[in-house]
Amino acid sequence: MTDLHFDPPMTMARVHAAHRWIIPTAAVLFVALALGAVEGWLVWDEPITHWVVGARTPWLNDVFRRISFFGSTPVVLTVSAVAAALAWRRCPRLAVAIVVIALARPLAEWALKELVSRDRPTGDRLVGGLGYSFPSGHPMAAAASWGVLPLVVALHSKRRLLWWSVAIAVWVLAVLVAISRVWLGVHWTSDVIAGLLLAVLGVAGAERLIDANHRSCGLHSGRRLERDDFD
Asked: What are the tens digits of pLDDT across the range 113-124?
C-alpha cells in the first residue's frame, strides 16, 4: 500500500475546504433543475436540442455513440468489478466501498427519475432510451465507476503524475459521456447537467465512506493515521 493511497493529491474534501460554496451550490442547482423539470420551466432545453440535431454529422454521430458506450450499464459494472478486484488484496474495505457505490448508483438514479417523471426528447434519437429522462444516468454511472480508478491506482503506484493523468481522464470522460447523451437525442441538456451535479455530490458523499475505509486499512496495516491525512 502506497503513501499516495493515504494522501491523494486532490480530494473533494480539500476542494470544499478551500471553496465551501461548491457543494451547497451543486445541491441547490440540482434541486432547482429538478423543480424546473417537474414544472416545465426549463425552456432552454428544446432550442439546444434543435441546434444539436442540426449540427450532427455522420462521423460525429459515430464518435458520440462510442463515447456513450463508456457510460453504459455493462461497461460501468465491469469497470467497478475490475476496480474492486484490484483493490481487494491491498484494501478490502475500499473494494467493498466500490461495490456499494456501484450498486447504490442505479437505485438512486431510478428513484429520482420516478420522482421527477420527465419525458425524454421525442424524435431524432440516434440510440434507444428507456424510462424517464431526469437525471441522466450515464454521466453518473461514468463518475461512479471510472471515477474510482484514481483510488485504485494509488494502491499500486506512488507516481503523482500517473494519478493526475487518470483522475483528469476519468472526469473528462464523464463530461464527454454527458455531452454524448444530448447529442444522441436521448436526454435534455438539463438532464446531463443534473447528472454531473449528482456525480459531484455523490463523490463528496462517497469520499466520507471511502476515507473511513482508508482509515481502517491504515490502522490494519500498522500505520497510525492522523486527522490531517484526510482534511
From this structure: 999 999 999 878
pLDDT digits (tens, 9 = 90+) for 179-226: 999 999 999 999 999 999 988 888 777 777 767 665 555 544 434 444
This prediction's pTM: 0.85
Joined grid coordinates for residue 10: 486532490
Tell me the domain boundaries of the chain. Answer: 3-230
What residues have CB less than 8 Å from 68, skipping those under 6 apart?
A: 127, 138, 177, 180, 181, 184
Q: Kindly report the number of other CB atoms within 10 A of residue 22's CB atom.
A: 14
Does the N-terminal peptide bond of residue 92 adopt cis geometry, omega within 30 degrees of 0? no
Question: Which CATH architecture best describes the domain 3-230?
Answer: Up-down Bundle (1.20)
Long-range contacts of 109-118 (CB under 8 A, 24+ apart): 109/135, 109/137, 109/140, 109/141, 112/34, 112/198, 113/137, 115/34, 116/34, 116/37, 116/38, 117/38, 118/37, 118/38, 118/188, 118/191
Instruction: Note whether 180 and 67 are within 8 A (CB).
Output: yes
Angle, helices 160-183/189-220, rounded to nearest 10 degrees: 150
